[in-house]
Fold:
Amino acid sequence: GHLPGRKTIGTGALFTPPQMTRAAYLRAARANGRAGGLAVAITVLAGWALSLYASLFSRAVADGPLALRLMAVASTTWFHTALFITGHEAMHGLVSPGYPRINHAIGWFCTRAFAHLDYKTLLHAHWAHHRCPAQAGKDPDFHNGTHRGVIPWFATFMLGYMRVSQLAWMGASCALLAALTSPVRVLVGWVLPLLASSVQLFFFGTYLPHRDPDLASGKPYADRHRARSEYGWSSQFHLLSCLNFGLHHEHHTMPYIPWWRLHTVRFDKVGAPPEVA
Structure:
């Protein structure tokens, strides 16, 4: 199953990609500047809050024409995805480089607001993923060697991160929002975008870049990072599809580059840099 050896994952070193020392990684992360990541995170949080408010509480949107409601679902889905990716940025120390307490506080809020996920579990699991990408039994995000297809892999992936306490909090949140608005608004305005966002994150950020070569038309992994990028897509499509998660080889090679700068280092445009020792 997923999250193998929870205790081992929980004690693994953070900020330690295979190509860099921890000190080199933290220096590279701080080189992005202190203001950019925080500004982007605040913008994402504001957009997420506004889109969710409109979908749940605005009569003009929630009870409006079908086309407007569909646009609201799409917008809320994208901002849900952006919310989780902001949490992911915090796991990389990129939301507020140099101020770890602020950085991880924002990451904690984003993962909780996304689906009451446990930030500490995600933080350790994500760095285990970077240390041993696409290795069954070592990478908590990879399939277990049996459930390799997109649907079974997604199912076991989701189950690996679910906890009873999380489901209880999700149920309580649904009940509270339904009491404040209506069950239909909660289903359409929050639950549906959350499910769509979860599929979006898994498909573009895990399955496509890390699937086995035989499931990728024989396309091999580029190198030891065992990740691929989709170079047939425009930068605009990468942004809309999953905030540049489709440039996944770049992310694993240079995990200190924030999502909003990945399109500037596309290997098909500027070439791959030598890895930092």
